[in-house]
Each structure stands twice: as structure tokens, then as C-alpha cells.
Amino acid sequence: MTKADQPRLLITGASSGIGLEASRRLVLDGYHLTLLCRTPQRCRETSDRLEDDGADPDNLDVLPMDLADLEDVERSCQQLLERGHRFDALILNAGLQSVGVREPLFTPQGIERTFAVNQLAHQLILMRLLPLLFKSRQPRVVITASDVHNPSSGGGRVGRPAGLGTMDGLHSGAGFTMVDGDSAYDADKAYKDSKLCNVLMGRELARQLQEQGRFIPVMAWSPGLVIPRGQGGFFRTSRQQNPLGLALFALVARDLLRLTETVQTAGELLASLVIDADYSKPGFAYYSNTLLGPGRHRFQSSPTSEEGADASKAKDLWLRCEQLISAVIQVDPPPAMPETST
Ligand SMILES: NC(=O)c1ccc[n+]([C@@H]2O[C@H](COP(=O)([O-])OP(=O)(O)OC[C@H]3O[C@@H](n4cnc5c(N)ncnc54)[C@H](OP(=O)(O)O)[C@@H]3O)[C@@H](O)[C@H]2O)c1
């Protein structure tokens, strides 16, 4: 493979969990990865870790991007546009949840943090970096969502269900607590709502691309419940809030009932969506790593929730997010891009 032919992938959330596992697999298979990590330190730690595992440093590029700060997202996107390198896939995988936290946290732009990181930052990345994806002959977009976006899924039934209503919060501009306009914060629902937004974002992106005559696979997917051992990872905030409760939850869900997926398999699934020919069908698709029974999952194409299938809501969400972004940060015109395809 020549340098020019080497597939070039961009990923968020590569510093931990599912994204780290997928990045390891992809970089060891010879793909070139641009890792967007929260801070310069997280960038260094992640590339050191991958190099310790055998990655060729020439196949790694890191760029700090704090998804909780839209100014930072915009700045880093501008840098990538100035460099002008092609991307063959945009892998939007970073995400957080703050279950157990009672009061909402807000970003520097006054956006509730779960929505800002999981949804808004990723839509801004798409809005800015699509020109680099269009340089690819076989582009893909992969978005890590979750089955909890669906009120009839196992996880989606626990607690208050996902639901954006008429998006009154989002309509009201920065400072809202919940997208549906509820002023009472529910961290678990805020997470479910953000994952519903991810599904709708993917659906609307595929529609827009199709309208432009671009037939590109846009996939949202759910890894299943993944509770890695150790201190960091997806449940870090819940563990801080309620260490005993989380330990009990992990013991029951992971070790006794075996309802969880391993982080290694979830990483493999993400990597396969990015590179396998099985996932090259243009348009929107949703895949779920469905739990069949203790220790048994099947990765399959699945319907989204009814709300996640609402094309007009998807269009409205995209537009409202676009308006919110331009209300809270200055979005500069894209710089002139070098013609290079690599
Ligand atoms: N684990 C599950 O059970 C599960 C189930 C369904 C869906 N998911 C989804 O899977 C994706 C990956 O989750 P995971 O389980 O791998 O969790 P994780 O280990 O906590 O990884 C999350 C990643 O997102 C990054 N991130 C969070 N906030 C960020 C910010 N402000 N700026 C930049 N990066 C940020 C983290 O960076 P740092 O390491 O620097 O914090 C980390 O790399 C998420 O979208 C999650 O919603 C997970």
C-alpha cells in the first residue's frame, strides 16, 4: 500500500474504552489514524499507549480537541481544513454520561455538557469536515449511539425514556437544562436524549448527502452494555457518585447475569463498521449488538426507535443545532484547502 492509498481515518473518543480498542485494531492493521483527544496530555498518553502496543508512529496523528468547548472544536477543525488531508471515515465515538449527578454542568458556551459533547460537538465536526471526507473515493461516517435511545430496548426502559418532545429547550437557545424543555435535570434521560440526537443526526446527514447526489454510508450503532474493569471509562462519574452502587451493578450485570459485552469485542465491532465491505451500503443504517441471552450477543441491522425514524424531526434537530452553534461561537468560513487528496 502506498502512502497515498493508505486509508485515513479520524476518530473522537480514542483515548479510552471502545474507541481505544478500535483504534488499536485499525492502526495495527495499517490504517492512518487522526485521534482527536480532549487535551494535549490525553493525546500524548493515547499515542504512547498505541505505540507501546506496536503502532507505527507514522500512522498516528493527534490533535487536542475538547468536545465540551465548541470554540476548541471549531479551532481544531480549522487546523484540519488548513492541512487539507483526506479522510476516508469520520468516526464520531466520544461520549459521556453523568448518571447520579443531580445538577447540570454547563460548557463555556452555556450548553448542558452531555448534549454539548455527545451531540453538538459532533454535528459541528460534521459541518466542518465533510469537505475532507468528500476527497475520499469510499467515504463512511460511523456514529456511536446506543440502544438506550429506544424506549422499547432493555436499557431504554430503565428510568425515564428518551424523548425530545417539541425540543422546547433547544428552541430556547443556550442555557437549557433538557432538550425537551424540562427545567428539572435528569442526567440519565439527558444521556438517552443525546443518543437519540445521534441517531437523528445520522439520519439527517444521510438525507442531505443523498440530496446532493452523494451516496455515502452513514451508520449509527449500539455496542451493548460495556462495563470494563478498572477505574476509568464510561461509568467513571457514576462510580464517583455512588461507588458501592456501581460495584453492585457491575457485579450483577457483568459477572452474574452476563448481560455485558467486552470492550475488546465492542472495539472490534466499531472497527468492522469502518472497514468491512459488509457495511458499505450507501444511506443511513442502524446496527445493534443485541443481547440474546447471558453472554450471547448478535450484531445486526436493527430498526431505530419510532422517534429516531422521524425524518422531519431529524431535519429540525440539525437546523436547531446549527442555529445554536452559530449563536454561541463565531463560525469562520472554511480556509482555502490545499488540493492534496492525502
Ligand atoms: N459503555 C457502554 O456501556 C456504552 C453503551 C452504549 C453506548 N456507548 C457509547 O460508546 C461510546 C464510547 O464509550 P466508552 O464506553 O468507550 O466510554 P469511555 O471509555 O468513557 O470513552 C469515552 C471517550 O470519550 C472521550 N470524551 C469524553 N468527553 C470528552 C471531551 N469533552 N472531549 C474529548 N473527548 C471526550 C473520552 O476522553 P477522556 O478519556 O479524555 O475522558 C473517551 O475517549 C460513547 O459514545 C458512549 O455513549 C457506551
Can you tag this structure with a few keywords?
10 helices, 342 residues, single chain, binds NADP nicotinamide-adenine-dinucleotide phosphate, globular, alpha/beta, Rossmann fold, 8 strands
Description:
- The protein is globular and about 50 Å long.
- Helix 1 packs across helix 9 (263-275), helix 3 (70-83) runs parallel beside helix 4 and helix 4 packs parallel to helix 6 (187-211).
- The two termini are 13 Å apart.
- It has one domain: 3-Layer(aba) Sandwich (Rossmann fold), CATH 3.40.50.720.
- Helix content is 41%, strand content 14%.
- The model has no long low-confidence stretch (mean pLDDT 95).
- The chain is an alpha/beta fold.
- The chain contains ten helices and eight strands.
- NADP nicotinamide-adenine-dinucleotide phosphate (NAP) is lined by residues 13, 15-19, 38, 42, 66-68, 93-96, 117, 144, 146, 222-223, 225-226, 233-234.
Quick structural overview:
With 342 residues, the protein is of the alpha/beta class. It contains ten helices and eight strands. NADP nicotinamide-adenine-dinucleotide phosphate is lined by residues 13, 15-19, 38, 42, 66-68, 93-96, 117, 144, 146, 222-223, 225-226, 233-234.
Give the helices and strands, then pairings.
Blueprint: E1 8-12, H1 17-28, E2 32-37, H2 40-52, E3 60-64, H3 70-83, E4 89-92, H4 113-133, E5 140-144, H5 168-171, H6 187-211, E6 217-222, H7 236-241, H8 243-256, H9 263-275, E7 283-293, E8 296-301, H10 311-328
Parallel strand pairs: 1-2, 1-4, 2-3, 4-5, 5-6, 6-7
Antiparallel strand pairs: 7-8
Helix pairs in contact: 1-9, 3-4, 4-6, 6-10
The protein binds NADP nicotinamide-adenine-dinucleotide phosphate.
The site of NADP nicotinamide-adenine-dinucleotide phosphate (NAP) has 24 residues, from α1.
